[in-house]
Amino acid sequence: MMVAASxxxxxxxxxxxxxxxxxxxxxxxxxxxxxxxxxxxxxxLSVVITGQEGIRELNRDYRGKDAPTDVLAFAMMPVEERxxxxxxxxxxxxxxxxxxxxxxxxxAAIQAEERKHSVKREIAVLLVHGVLxxxxxxxxxxxxxxxxxxxxxxxxxxxxxxxxxD
Length: 166
Description:
Elements: E1 7-13, H1 23-36, E2 43-50, H2 52-63, E3 71-75, H3 79-83, E4 96-104, H4 105-115, H5 119-134, H6 142-162
Parallel strand pairs: 1-2, 2-4
Antiparallel strand pairs: 3-4
Helix pairs in contact: 1-5, 1-6, 4-5, 5-6
């Protein structure tokens, strides 16, 4: 059975933030990260925009940190395998199931003000960061952190050529 090439990026924006962000814009940012990383088609991921309480609960339940954070990424491939550099195996349905990126809109707004740029730009930064985590990038030590920040900057530069961030 031939599976048509596609990129499935589902976006859920909690109701209180729907007027501030467009699902299509978020989908475009995530898609551009995947393309920049050579994941052109047959990939699937989810993006969720939530509030402080929702992300705090997830951070507590899954990371043991009872505090809000800016972005969480839940990859489908176990961390141990991603850290060993094991490639994703294409499942029988032909889709590369990457996982989910969850962003706190209120935390993004706080950080945008601190960094003196728009909330939209901060959301893009966090989305790039989260998708890179799904693809195996980590910042557990200074060397990995440096590599991840360099890749984030590179991809944000590419995105800015095609998509308004402010």
